[in-house]
Design brief:
With 244 residues, this protein is α/β, with parallel strands linked by helices. It has helices spanning 50-61, 79-85, 100-107, 114-118, 130-135, 174-181, 200-209; strands at 5-13, 16-25, 31-38, 41-45, 68-73, 90-97, 123-127, 149-154, 184-194, 212-222, 227-237.
């Protein structure tokens, strides 16, 4: 029997102290929950992953039946990446993660979805700065500068206003979103997870760059609080036509 609490890894990183821990919640039937913290902020819990899965499903639903190349920004516990790979139309997946220990957790099988994710030949885990890649001319694939993708799914900051680092803020403005869109194929999709309700100002920024956008409110059970919680998934589509 596993212990009720275990710190699986602790690292000092340029973004702060990173911790992976497992704890058993007796009030929920003794299930094991994996949690990621950066400093005092909770980044991810395996107890809540409905919206991370919805991020992949809602974003890729806009692609249709076309074989597609996808970028996931932020690895976390792997739920968005694994959900994307369940779509048979996904022929390649790049997962960009700024914190190298998070990649090591998956490669070493320290987190539940690690083996499933790293054994899929369509998937590559890349250690790098998603926001730096987004604003660069070279884009997200270090092995193929200028490569364009059918979809980019992003789950890094808590929301466009609640950032892990102030330098991420420019990405969520018109110019930053425009640079991101330049790495999408015509008709490509950008989808974003947010822990806040729909943000009208951010939707306006999306609408200056993309031909259409939607804010989906995703509700999910919160057994710790005894009621539903909700997050937002934004989905925006680039205009079709033009050069790829």
């Amino acid at each position: 029997m596993s212990r009720d609490f275990e710190e699986l890894d602790y690292r000092k990183t340029p973004m702060g102290e990173l911790t992976l821990r497992r704890r058993r919640v007796l009030s929920l039937g003794g299930i094991d929950i994996f949690e990621v913290k950066l400093g005092e902020a909770f980044l991810m819990s395996s107890l809540f992953h409905d919206v991370e899965v919805a991020l992949a499903d809602l974003g890729l639903a806009e692609i249709g039946g076309e074989a597609c190349d996808v970028v996931v920004g932020g690895l976390g516990l792997g739920y968005t990446a694994v959900a994307a790979l369940k779509h048979e139309t996904v022929r390649s997946l790049l997962v960009v993660e700024a914190l190298d220990p998070v990649i090591e957790w998956h490669q070493g099988g320290l987190v539940p979805l690690g083996a499933e994710l790293t054994s899929d030949p369509r998937c590559r885990l890349i250690h790098g700065d998603f926001f730096g890649f987004a604003k660069s001319e070279e884009g997200f694939d270090p092995g193929a500068p200028g490569r364009k993708f059918h979809a980019v799914l992003l789950d890094i900051d808590h929301s466009p206003r609640n950032l892990l680092h102030p330098r991420h803020g420019a990405f969520y403005e018109r110019e930053g979103l425009g640079k991101l869109a330049s790495h999408l194929r015509p008709g490509g999709v950008f989808a974003l997870w947010s822990d806040d309700p729909p943000d009208d100002e951010f939707i306006e920024a999306l609408d200056t760059v993309f031909i259409q956008s939607h804010a989906h409110v995703v509700r999910f059970p919160n057994p710790l609080l005894g009621h539903e919680s909700a997050s937002t998934v934004y989905v925006a589509r680039k205009a079709a036509g033009g050069e790829e």
